[in-house]
Design goal:
The chain is α/β, with parallel strands linked by helices. The protein has helices at 47-54, 77-87, 103-108, 118-131, 147-159, 177-194, 205-208, and strands at residues 3-16, 19-32, 36-40, 62-67, 70-71, 88-92, 165-169, 197-201, 213-218, 221-223. The strands form two sheets. The chain has a six-stranded mixed beta sheet. A four-stranded antiparallel beta sheet has the order 2-1-4-5. β9 (213-218) and β10 (221-223) form a beta hairpin. α4 crosses α5 and α5 (147-159) runs parallel beside α6 (177-194). It is globular, with a radius of gyration of 18 Å.
Length: 229
């Protein structure tokens, strides 16, 4: 099976004053196309760093990062931005919607960087809103929507350019249990029916249970289930 994500011997460190802090220590990870992967781990374990490397938001100090068939660790800034716009949709814990824009305008934002016509952009937005079940809220601004509806709009925005990969950073962390479950069912449906590859970081075991596979990161390394404390 083809791989959507392959990290090999990835090392990532940061400088904190005079101290060098190693976050990832030769980490290996393979994610097949069409998988829904949950990455779990304690605070400071390196799981969000893994997500940022996969999404091209950060760079490894060494090792290789291949995503959607391309060695993104070798791309320059402009090349990486073009690659992200083609391949990755981002979903965050805090919805990052523009408060002054309607739902449909928020969803349209990624398409403004493309060469699509206004009519083509509208068609894409219509489909994305229909997928998340909010076509009837298209004119509403974020303040007029519930938390769950705002996250659905954020998911529609992530989907609107038909990305290869969805990157989710604690996508239900700001929601109550019932609403969180509704969002996770939606992600599960996108994975199973549309074949979207999803990589999600979460600290919530109930959220992780919606994924098709779980991995655990601790002290910068993947930990096998039998080695977990």
């Amino acid at each position: 099976m083809a791989l959507a994500v392959e990290l090999r011997q990835v090392v990532k460190h940061y400088r904190r004053g005079k101290e060098m802090v190693e976050v990832l220590s030769g980490l290996d990870l393979a994610v097949p196309e069409g998988e829904f992967l949950a990455i779990m781990g304690p605070s400071g374990s390196g799981k969000t760093t893994v997500l940022n490397l996969i999404g091209g938001l950060d760079r490894a100090n060494s090792g290789s990062v291949t995503v959607c068939g391309e060695r993104i660790d070798s791309l320059n800034g402009a090349g990486l931005a073009r690659w992200r716009s083609r391949h990755v949709g981002f979903i965050f814990q805090f919805y990052n919607l523009m408060p002054g824009l309607s739902a449909e305008r928020n969803v349209e934002l990624p398409l403004l960087l493309t060469h699509l016509s206004r009519a083509e952009r509208k068609a894409h937005v219509d489909i994305a809103l229909e997928v998340v079940g909010l076509s009837d809220r298209r004119r509403h601004k974020p303040s007029e929507l519930s938390g769950g509806q705002q996250q659905r709009i954020a998911i529609a925005r992530a989907l609107v350019a038909d990305p290869t990969l969805l990157i989710c950073d604690e996508p239900t962390g700001d929601l109550d249990r019932q609403t969180a479950d509704e969002i996770l069912v939606l992600l599960q449906t996108l994975n199973r029916r549309q074949g979207k590859t999803i990589v999600m970081v979460t600290h919530d075991q109930k959220a992780a249970d919606y994924a098709s596979r779980q991995v655990h990161v601790d002290k910068g390394m993947l930990i096998a289930p039998e080695d977990r404390p």
